[in-house]
Amino acid sequence: MDTSAAGAGIESGARLVGAEELASLVQGTPLLVLLDIDGTLCEIVSDPRGAAVPEATQRTLARLAASPSVSVALVTGRAVREARQMVRVPGIPIIGNHGLEWLDAAGEARPIDGWDAVAPHLRRAHEALVAHVSRIPGAVLEDKTYSLTVHYRNVDAALAGALRDEVRVVAAEQGLRTADGKCIVNVLPPIDVDKGHAALRLARASGTSARDASILFAGDDVTDENAFRALAREMPHAVTVRVAASDGPTAARFRVPSPSVLASALELIAEERAA
Predict the structure, then answer these.
(1) What CATH code is carried by the domain that includes residue 62?
(2) How many domains in the chain?
(3) The domain containing residue 120 runs over which residues?
(4) Which pTM was predicted?
(5) How far apart are CA 123 and CA 219, in angstroms?
(6) Three-state DSSP class for residue 218
(7) Are 165 and 62 a contacting pair, CB within 8 Å?
(8) Per-residue buried b or exposed e for 141-175, using 16+ beta carbons within 10 Å of the residue's own CB
(9) 190 near 100, Cβ under 8 Å?
(10) φ, ψ for residue 216 (rounded to 5)?
(11) pLDDT digits (tens, 9 = 90+) for 103-155
């Protein structure tokens, strides 16, 4: 089953805002800041292993997290272990693998309930995909323990379509689901969880579901649309932001053109909350 958001009733383009306007939109207390990583806190690069969150952005996140009125969490498709290496701010909760993996209070990454039953199916899918991916120059298979990701950013366009189809067939044979992203296909357990579920759970736990509180969720990819839609449905006061250079269909309310503009907005918020 393909759970990508493409064609799933996503709204039209979001309103473009600058750093100052975005910061002005989250004046409520408490404030929950939920952030994707790749394409949101840092630019997307051809090799995902080379992506890096700027040190200045990490310092801003640390300042935000230190404010008694602010909670900060990362909601990413990456594994928790990778997210911790990219954002080295102690104490920030991390939800990895599109909501399948949570960093607990003891600092250990734990899968959500239901993982054990599907683990063998994911292992078999990995074995099958190794053979497919190894035949395609430029393709990369990433094993994130609780999910798999096939990257095809560096694959010849003539081969990319067939590779995506092969990934979906392998997933279906193992009873797994797929979700598309920017030049990737994610292979996920058939567990009803995504970034939207994670965002709502964090909002309720932090006390920011009330209308006099503020929620900021920023992301750039197709899987972030799940969070944009869930927050719009359950917590319409949330400020949802798509990080994208150009306009396009999205359920986010606002858009900033780059990770650097988002970083500037986060810095302004940190300064205001420290005053």
Answers:
(1) 3.40.50.1000
(2) 2
(3) 116-188
(4) 0.89
(5) 29
(6) strand
(7) no
(8) bbebbbbbbbbbbebeeeebeebbebbbebbeebe
(9) no
(10) -120, 120
(11) 866 677 888 888 888 999 999 999 999 998 999 999 999 999 999 999 999 99
